[in-house]
Amino acid sequence: MAARGNPLKRRVRSLGGKVLRRFRLLPGGMPDGIGDDAALADKTLDGEVILYFPDTMDSLYQLRSWYGPLEELHGAQGVTVVCMDSRTAAAIRTETSLPVVTIALDATLDAIILRSDTKLVLYVNYNPLNTAALRSRSAIHVSLLHGDSDKVVSVSNQIKAYDYSFVAGQAAIDRLERYTTLFDAPARCIPVGRPSLDTDRREITPRQDPRPTVLYAPTWEGGQSSAAYSSLATHGEAAVRALLAEGLQVIYRPHPLTGVRVPALGEADGALRDLITAEGGRISTDRPLQQDFADADLILCDVSAVTGDWLPTGKPMIITRSADPDSRDAGTELLRTVPRLDAAGAADAGRLARSLLEHDPQHEERIELIEYYLGDITPGASLQRFLDACRRLAARRDELWERISSSTDLGDLG
């Protein structure tokens, strides 16, 4: 106890922490906490919306999928990205025109939200560090997540921390009603589709390879065994060899977080890259997802958000079944409709893929599921639903805040 209260030791620990942060020696998953707090002491944030992102670079892919919609929202209501990690903030500034600040201290964040005309705070994941912003009672808090999937994270109890959740479609609401207890999904979930599919439409390069092509897009290992959906180490090599033996071209799109928690997944990724390179396939790490979709005739993937994004292509898919006995999914209609590939059957992936390319018996069923999962996919419709939802919630916040402020001392409601 005496050591804990020793002022000299406290100063040494504090100095050590500053050195680690300044020279960027912290582990990759830990925010460096180098904030703009001093410069923001008496400032306000422009606009009505904060996108709160306390994560490090490892998770930046989650925010990138929202850049386009957020830039459109910035034009309508004003958006500021608030980070906790200066490295991540610097990267975001090079990738988007959105204003970005880094706030290290909870007190700074609390005060600036209350001083500013912040009406909505948006979140793209369930990072425990989100609680720093969630404390604010002067704004409405909205979970966006970064894709719709049948992963257990889609029905996490953490959803209850947010006032509302923007979901892709009715499938997400039904999933939450089925798997999440004591949560009023119809009242607290707002379907907006996938706005990024509207904003991220890019000119697609004409396809060069005439051979039938399979896109293999496994997910990462997950944060816990119940979410261990990756097929990379259990299915990957056998499935890819089978596809190549069947005369099919392969595009391999690894997940950005592959191997961050389980080194064996990183090793499997390296081995698969070597195999595909040797066989003349493509490794896709810096191409738009839509380009990979355009170049592929079929997708082999795990339980992940990529299934819903692929659905509008109308092309066949195979979804793997996890070999981890502890894994669980929040299965909806898509998992019951498309063929599933077990690890034991990975060597038959080529024959299965060839069969589906020649005869796709689930085609009509998948087409019927598009609206169920994504709503209206007319170009621009999803983006408009997103913008309309943000505008309505901002108005609702004003109504609620006026009611609170008229009967309460605002000094008590940071």
What's the CATH class of the largest domain, please?
Alpha Beta
Biggest sheet statistics: 7 strands, parallel
- With strands numbered from the N-terminus, the spatial order across the biggest sheet is 3-2-1-4-5-6-7
Weakly predicted, low-confidence segments: 1-27
Q: Please, how many helices?
A: 18
CATH architecture of the largest domain: 3-Layer(aba) Sandwich
Instruction: Supply Rg.
Output: 23 Å
Q: What is the rounded distance between the termini?
A: 33 Å
Average of per-residue pLDDT values: 90
Tell me the helix content: 40-55%
CATH fold assignment of the largest domain: Rossmann fold
Q: What structural class do you assign from the helix and strand content? A: alpha/beta
Shape: globular
Strand content: 5-15%
The count of strands amounts to: 13
Number of domains: 2
CATH superfamily membership of the largest domain, which one? Glycogen Phosphorylase B
Structural description of this entry:
With 414 residues, the chain is α/β, with parallel strands linked by helices. The protein has two domains: 20-147 and 194-199, Rossmann fold (3-Layer(aba) Sandwich), CATH 3.40.50; 213-374, Glycogen Phosphorylase B (Rossmann fold), CATH 3.40.50.2000. The chain is built from 18 helices and 13 strands. It has helices at 2-5, 7-22, 60-64, 67-77, 86-95, 106-115, 131-134, 170-179, 185-188, 196-199, 232-245, 263-278, 289-295, 306-310, 333-337, 349-358, 363-374, 381-407; strands at residues 49-53, 79-83, 100-102, 120-123, 140-143, 164-167, 189-191, 213-217, 249-252, 282-283, 298-301, 317-320, 340-341. The strands form two sheets. Strands 3-2-1-4-5-6-7 form a seven-stranded parallel β-sheet. Strands 10-9-8-11-12-13 form a six-stranded parallel β-sheet, with helices on both faces. β12, α15 (333-337) and β13 (340-341) form a beta-alpha-beta unit.
